[in-house]
Give the backbone structure.
Amino acid sequence: MEAEGLRARKKRARLEAFVDATHRLAAEHGLERVTVEAICAEVGVSVRTFFNYFETKDDAVLGLEHWRLDPVAAETFAAGGPSGDLLPDMQALTASALDHPPLGKERMERAFEVAKGHPELMLRAYTHLQGLHDDLAALVRRRLGDTTDESVVTLVGALLLALAHATFLRWDAAGGGGDVHEHLPGVVSDLAGILATGR
Amino acid sequence: MEAEGLRARKKRARLEAFVDATHRLAAEHGLERVTVEAICAEVGVSVRTFFNYFETKDDAVLGLEHWRLDPVAAETFAAGGPSGDLLPDMQALTASALDHPPLGKERMERAFEVAKGHPELMLRAYTHLQGLHDDLAALVRRRLGDTTDESVVTLVGALLLALAHATFLRWDAAGGGGDVHEHLPGVVSDLAGILATGR
DNA sequence: ATGCATTCTTGCACGCGCTGCAGGGTTGCG
DNA sequence: CGCAACCCTGCAGCGCGTGCAAGAATGCAT
């Protein structure tokens, strides 16, 4: 019944080992003092292998691989749903992404813990998500119409990322307890309030 | 009458030489095939000196150094002006930044030309602007009140950047003629429209 | 001009991230 | 059991970026 072969399971285990070792060492010595070599020594594997798993040292912190959007939520968004208003629907899309971290919630939280002191990591996440940019652009385009200007697509994409980032910060400010996505509505309403009413 | 000594003028000239050489080589061979060594050979200066001017190879493309906000515009923004509504005032602040590129308009346009094919550069600009983040945060905080949540500050900051980026894209899509900031109102109105009405 | 302090440039050695290649070992499957 | 596909590994090497210490250029005062 195991659809996954031994090969795939070993690969996944190794990947998680990399991520965990990176988190452990980063928490202890600070990320900038942790070399790829050290991580590999911890895992018991060659340096060359590390780069068969990750493009970048930073990717090991974030556990980045195929952080794809939930297809169902994406489809709904593209079709103009669920509510029909763009802002709450962006909220829904973001929440779905936050609910499906690829390597489990604890790892994601530890990753964010490390990333707090290292803004470049957030940036790396941005670039990685720019791999999603094409998908995202297609989504936005399908929703808003083919004539939509590239700059508008970019704007909406940036907005989505900023939403996710701000939500993380708020979750962290609240002590890091509970679900991350619980803090999304607050962020969205603040944004809407600011933009709508001026101030 | 020359307030700038010979020293300062030489420094500035060399900095511009670095930027221009980088642009020239990048346009010819593509940025990833241009080494710092090649840039320095072009300028006729040692590699070590390059890194006395820039922290990063990418910084040479962008000519990043002290891209500070216009103090007057910043002050106006913080005080709640000029219009009193946040969105148009963000527009005004962004326009002022776009109107004061530190190394001249042609260089900025060439930098953007290179950056189009290299998203990491935009990101680098973002981190660099995070040096401004403290200033910007202080600005936003003064405007919105001391109690403003960190995440809101981040959100507004990201929004400002996205505004600038989208404006560049639109300017470029229009053929790259005329003033960049002329395309800002269109971007802003699109954003406002999207967020206000849903769709 | 002359001497002196400050600043800028340069070469050197080095660490680290990251890559291509070539080989040997492991896994999956008929 | 044997073959094909896949994966790990060491090695050699490039490129970015830094600390250091010696030497050149500059600014300034006399």
